[in-house]
Amino acid sequence: MTTVQAGIGTPPRLQRAIRTPDGEKFLRGIAGTRVRQNGCAAAAYAALYANVDVITAYPIRPYTAIMMNLAQFVADGILDAEYIHADGEHSQFSAAFGAASCGARAYTGSSGVGVTYGYEMYSIISGARIPVQMAIADRTLDPPGDFGSEHTDALCTRDMGWLMGWAATPQEVFDKSLLAFAIGEDPRVLLPQMVVQDGYFVSHIAGEVDMPAADQVDGFLPPYQLPFPLDPRRPVSHGPQIHPEQGPPLQLERARAMEDAIPVIREKTDEFARVFGRQYPHFVESYLLEDAEIAIVISGGHAVTCRAAVNRLRARGIKVGMARLLWVRPFPSDDLREALRGVKAVGVVETNLGLGGASYGGILSLDVTTALYHLPGPRPLVASFMAGLGGETVPMAEFDWMAGKLGQAVERGHVEKPAHWVGFEE
Question: Model pTM greater than 0.90?
Fold first, then answer.
């Protein structure tokens, strides 16, 4: 990263970060190729293309391979970045916060209990409007310590002001990482981002990933330009102690930033399609919902199986569709309402725990139900399905069972109960 001196009292403007000669040669060699990578490698390659300046790491599976790949890039001279191996997640996120506050593009990550260990820093980073990116390969929280994939770790932080969404394939991990940087660093947003992938199912299973030219990425992702970097020549205060009446206006600004991210996500998603030729839905993937009577709402890698299950159920004459949430924060209420308009019953797959909540099951169904409550006209029935917990697969037979429960709800005119624990009921 190089700087250009600006006028007195204004922050220095940043030019495009300089890549190393070996890095340029490496990226030229893979440009235009399609490689097989798991989700961890895809995340690391996206950080390489984004030319991150500071990486803060602490090992905890299954995200560790992201940082292993990045450490190798630095060791090989492919990436010129400061690599900080912290003594724990709180220190790790603190270091990323400090680096990004000084004008560096910072990258960090974690899994499971590591995500929760550094919890104090999430509100601090978003409240300071510092767009750090965090990769999460999610994993079950302790107890019982089974290490499998579960979304609870990331969703514990859902109200801390970070952009958050799940990628279902390694290609999506790569693309969403670049997208998240472009969205979060946009001066209209300035929010940190969590790019989440299912541990093991996505993080460790290879898929095909298209490698772009570095110039394409550089054209899509401008240099990181924090409007108020820490600079001894131009002092600013970050996180000062304030009077109580000064707090609510700042919280309102953060709330508005999350709302303002919605049109930016739409804009950047469309721009990404023009640059790279891969078009993603802005917020919700609608699959066979046009005439659906029942629908599955889902997020993450299990959507791949869900899509196949929907096809099989359709072949049996069951009018079912799928709505996959690409972003959970900001929650896509308008897009979800539009996708599920006309559906009679909705089942939310909850690969997470929301113990004691209104549904007595998971977390997502609360947002889904709230969004659908404001649907004009008839509203669909909503049930949640606790499935895939502890890293278990969600096989097609379980989606068949969910569809059966939703069909029964349509016939009765009400759901049997708010939450079903799949595999523990007849």
Answer: yes
